[in-house]
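tool=predict chain=A
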Amino acid sequence: MPHATQHADVATAELDSALRGGPFHVALRAAIAARGLPLQRVQHHLTRHGVRVGVTSLSYWQQGARRPQRPESLRAVRALEEILQLPEESLIRLLAEAEEDTSAKRPAARSYRSYVEASGVLDRLLAELDHPPSDGGVYTLGHHELIRVGPRRELAGRESHHIVRAHRDGVDRFVAVHQGDPGCAPARMTVHALENCRTGRVRTHHDTGVLVTELLFDTRLRAGDTHLFRYGVEDGTAGASREYVRGFGSASGQYALQVRFDAAALPVRCHRFTQHSPAAPRGGRQELPLSGRHRSVHLVEPRVRSGMLGIEWEWE
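tool=predict ok
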């Protein structure tokens, strides 16, 4: 079968070239062609890996019409590396490079590469805690976060107050995630269980600044039960902070974010913003007036949708 062998050699050579130089969509298309898999089979393999991606999305990705951006999509890319028998991080690297090529079109913020790297680290840390990345068994009815910015302009810490409802029996914990600012030291951060919970296992990753902690309830919730709990993270390990962003993988209830500044470190202006994904431009910008005596700004979203929401501030 000389023609078949020759075709396979060409496909392999194209794949090797695409993996070295990209771009992402060309490498993905070459990998799928080299393995001889129709998109329906690729989708089937992804489902077996616990990741759901439509055939239309896969088609768009390999055409370059869209890029994987959401956390679930990034998990799909990592699964594709295994399914298509590619070197680890090969597609993720190309994806991060493609997004950074367009970074000049977006406001200065945490780089897309840092989000990509953090997503992979987070998956590994959650796996160590035997926690599925997409479902902790609860729906968030309400979430209030208070961010404290210290006298050195640093992210001094945050406090979170959650109201959750179990959608299955047996839920007895919540896994909380904190990502500090660039240059932080998560091993030096401390977690405090403040109300209706206690601290379980804690995992950290220095390079991405990710901290993951279990918050253990003293009861097992049944489906439909609600639970209120509060915890805090003491940080203060990085330099000047310029924003706080919260990502939401799915729709949930009310979210309120308050940022309180030390009297010795007041910003010149603050804005709220929304972002469809880490790779997307920021929209929904609205200036937030700094309250005088309380030195804080806040936003309230009555019903959160999938995406990102945050507050950014500028220093003199």
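Helices lie at 2-21, 24-35, 39-48, 55-63, 71-83, 90-101, 112-128. The domain at 2-101 is CATH 1.10.260 (434 Repressor (Amino-terminal Domain)).
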